[in-house]
Amino acid sequence: MSVKENALSILALGGVNEIGKNMYVIQYSNDIVIIDCGAKFPDESLLGVDLIIPDISFLQENKEKIRALIVTHGHEDHIGGIPYFLKKLNVPIYATRLTLGLIELKLKEHNLLGDTELIQINSDSKLEFGEMVLDFFKTNHSIPDCLGVTMHTPEGTVVHTGDFKFDLTPMNDQYPDIHKMAKIGSEGVLVLLSESTNAERPGSSPSEHLVGSHIEEAFMQAKQKVILSTFASNVNRVQQVVNAALKTNRKLALIGRSMVNVVTVAIERGYLEVPDGMLIQPQEVDSYAPERVAVLCTGSQGEPFAALSRLSSSNYRDMSILPDDTVILASTPIPGNERDVSRIIDNLFQLGAKVIYGSGTVTGMHVSGHAYQEELKLMLTLMKPKYFIPIHGEYRMLHQHRLLAESVGVEKDHTFIINNGDVVDIENSVARQTRKVAAGNTFVDGVGVGDVGEIVLRDRKQLSEDGMLVIVITLSKTERKIVSGPDTISRGFVYVQNSEDLLKNVNRLVTKTVNDLQSEKIYRWNIIKQTIKKELGQYLFNQTKKKPMILPIIIEI
Amino acid sequence: MSVKENALSILALGGVNEIGKNMYVIQYSNDIVIIDCGAKFPDESLLGVDLIIPDISFLQENKEKIRALIVTHGHEDHIGGIPYFLKKLNVPIYATRLTLGLIELKLKEHNLLGDTELIQINSDSKLEFGEMVLDFFKTNHSIPDCLGVTMHTPEGTVVHTGDFKFDLTPMNDQYPDIHKMAKIGSEGVLVLLSESTNAERPGSSPSEHLVGSHIEEAFMQAKQKVILSTFASNVNRVQQVVNAALKTNRKLALIGRSMVNVVTVAIERGYLEVPDGMLIQPQEVDSYAPERVAVLCTGSQGEPFAALSRLSSSNYRDMSILPDDTVILASTPIPGNERDVSRIIDNLFQLGAKVIYGSGTVTGMHVSGHAYQEELKLMLTLMKPKYFIPIHGEYRMLHQHRLLAESVGVEKDHTFIINNGDVVDIENSVARQTRKVAAGNTFVDGVGVGDVGEIVLRDRKQLSEDGMLVIVITLSKTERKIVSGPDTISRGFVYVQNSEDLLKNVNRLVTKTVNDLQSEKIYRWNIIKQTIKKELGQYLFNQTKKKPMILPIIIEI
């Protein structure tokens, strides 16, 4: 990206037209600041892919200009890409105390701790990079210690909200700093980037405090063990579970690696208060009276290898769910996870448990951490931006957010709905979206980063749907004829024992195809292979309506 | 199943602990009646499987006893298995006029029309099979012409509700016959089988009539074309769309094969009234003023090849969605389909359309066809059964339905939550669940029925996640050494061009493995293959954290 001197440019490398892998770039003149570096979990169409991270080739090309990675909060879609990012680029990371703790956990897992400068900031910090001056404001979200970012440039002020809601009765004094936001707005905002997750939802999101009273009530009524599953990162909700356990005189066991990790960091850093002696090990659970113990575990999204799933299928060594235990799913399934969550609920009922589940507003066991429409309008009203870029959402959310912006006075053509890679340039207070840089998905598969792509995934898709057929033929170079084979190996296609006739016909067809070619004096391997693929593919599709991958292997001796 | 003389047995071959492939079997002495023969769509874990139908081996073993297949209504999960069933068993089919029309469509597609006796019945019909006497009662559901089934046997009366709700202001006079149900209940019901789809939902389902007023309002407000997508089989909703089009003076085009088919059958058989000249062809749409035309199409569940998906991606030849057109999704995504539906909504917004979407109760554009809790309690109260078998639902739904039954007086141990294949035997008015017959899933994949199973699917899963590596080696029998290869073919594993070093090391490792074995005078192919798989699998996992399928191929010359 060739940027003019004294020009301001804004772009996303991830996070727009999607939920996940947030990464935003603000450049003024020759200084680049990155906001967030998230990951995204693949949907079922990305066969075998473990994680998706942003394509950072634009940053690699401009690495000498990068001054900082600012991280707004400690959720996976904002920090999950950091280890992969650091393997390519060494950039100092700025974040609050809890967020840094969670980043450190991640770097430790990847053996990267110590390689990069980690700088703790808070909402009063001020940072200068070239002619950019950054300061911050407190927001409230489903994890503590969140920041919005204000970037003052000679061209004007850019505000990035991070993830937020306006919870005015928050846990642990995590009030959104409305006064500071108002002041920023009064001083003039050139561009606002605001998150759009719940832009489709009318009204305002309920306070996290409401969840607390429902958890407490469930703990009171439970006659046996209570098992509660929620996102480990929702430290405020964890605090409410601790409070309910305390009030009902229960010990608390933690199950699930991320639950143990996050709770440990949160206690160490002062974001979670747990009385001494309350925490017990999972294997101690059974030694307490059931009405004196509770369990807090991961897996509320139905993840097959997480604690709740293993507990529900009696596949966890240290303790069991017994009849009349109470299981609480303190979350709402993210679209795509409903089936896995439902399967767990079925299993829990079969174990005889009392299960409290359903969408959060029905059970009162979950509230969203993201602003609804009225809150988004409040942010827009506080900031009064000249230009608006809705971020952090799929297209329909960005679209609805644009309508909200118009409803509170942002001019119609002053909202930019961008794709990842689209650049908004602002010069002399006029914003234009005209150019594009490289952006996209980088797939993490096993330890490989970027070593699978569309061709590999297309092959996996074909293999997954109809399997494959390997055909091995040995040809004599001198006699120009088949000396052994065809031998057929079928995987993922049909049961061999049920399909003997089919496979015999396959062999006959391949033999005939090869013999015909030989008699026409066609000996070139690639022609023989292509012809086998074509003839056999046609035959198999007619017979089975399947299109297995056909791999002819020719050995010449 | 060896049944005693004069004994009554009830079982499900599909439909319990699942939504889909409903098939229930009632046997008295030597006479078997089957109720429904449905199919089910596979979830994403069943790679490449097109359709799931019940395993009918129990029926094949008892074919001389089967007297009838009674079909309660024309939905896929009740009729979708019929073509596959008829290829194995020739059984007369009894159903109402519309249901038979939809079954005939299906048989025509499979070239089976005329092979089997199709007998039209209505709610006044009476059928006798041995000592069983069957009669029927009208119910209301999201498709017209639905029946409940009453089976009188010397042992007592068995009632099967079919799918139902209590819509007391229904479309087209499809009133549930509450008086007849009350009479059946008064005369005594031994066993009730009642559907459980919405057993988790409190209250009563709204009337289909409410949808009509919302559709009409949207048609009134639309300034351009209206495109409405719903289930083709919901003939009553289609009628309301026709009415709204009539009221707003719009022509109506139908897009999607099943929409055209179902509407044609419904008009022919008198379940749908469409004024002459109202229907136009899709390619005529653009020749009308946009405010004078509407489109009714399939694909409301986000099916990738259905009409709405193609329209939303501008991938449909005959007409286009233009800015300011109104698109209505008159349905709620079935769990698992949310992502596909969301993608379509995103695309529609990008085309500039006004999109009316969201859960049915919010937009008023959809109501469920299945009874909520209060309606299920009404059915249980009307029927006053001694024994209760909740059907048509996943475990948690059956479980909640059991609690509802208890709440209206069914004795706690008189409810049987069964699995497919579990038999409930009733003798001397006492029900017991003690034995099991073969039951399960038969997969339809292409034209193959039952030719894929767990091994094939396991292979597909491995192939889909990590791909495969074929290793070809040619060994000399006389010299006992490798004469050519190893040659490596990688598909769905890694990009070859990015992984040259890895693949070189693979070749080195295989060569060494084979040479080592040869020098130890180990020549047996299966040992060589096993050793290659083990060594190479270990190496590749260490290097890549992937586990591709490894297929060593040895040619001996």
Automatic annotation (TrEMBL), chains A, B:
Enzyme group, top EC level? hydrolase
Under the heading Pfam families, the entry gives:
Lactamase_B, RMMBL, RNase_J_b_CASP, RNase_J_C
Sites binding Zn(2+) 1 sit at 73, 75, 77, 141, 163, 392
Q: Where is the signal peptide?
A: none
Metallo-beta-lactamase domain residues are 20-214
Q: Name one GO molecular function term.
A: 5'-3' RNA exonuclease activity
Q: Which residues bind Ca(2+)?
A: 48, 50, 445
The note describing how and how many cofactors are bound reads: Binds 2 Zn(2+) ions per subunit. It is not clear if Zn(2+) or Mg(2+) is physiologically important.
Q: Which cofactor does it need?
A: Zn(2+); Ca(2+)
**Gene Ontology terms describing biological process:** mRNA processing; rRNA processing
Q: Which keywords, in A-to-Z order, does the entry hold?
A: Calcium, Cytoplasm, Endonuclease, Exonuclease, Hydrolase, Metal-binding, Nuclease, RNA-binding, rRNA processing, Zinc
Q: Gene3D superfamilies this protein is in? A: 3.10.20.580, Metallo-hydrolase/oxidoreductase, Ribonuclease Z/Hydroxyacylglutathione hydrolase-like
Q: Which residues form the active site?
A: 195, 370
Report the EC number(s), separated by commas if there are several.
3.1.-.-
Indicate which residues the UniProt annotation says bind Zn(2+) 2. Answer: 78
Annotated compartments:
Cytoplasm
Of the GO CC terms on this record, one is: cytoplasm
Q: Where is it predominantly found?
A: cytoplasm
**Which InterPro entries does the UniProt entry name for this protein?**
Metallo-B-lactamas, RibonucZ/Hydroxyglut_hydro, RMMBL, RNase_J, RNase_J_2, RNase_J_b_CASP, RNase_J_bac, RNase_J_C
From what superkingdom does this record's organism come?
Bacteria
HAMAP family per the UniProt record, alphabetical: RNase_J_bact
As for what it does, the entry says: An RNase that has 5'-3' exonuclease and possibly endonuclease activity. Involved in maturation of rRNA and in some organisms also mRNA maturation and/or decay.
Describe the protein's quaternary organization and the partners it interacts with.
Homodimer, may be a subunit of the RNA degradosome.
Assigned protein family: Belongs to the metallo-beta-lactamase superfamily. RNA-metabolizing metallo-beta-lactamase-like family. Bacterial RNase J subfamily.
UniProt name for this protein: Ribonuclease J
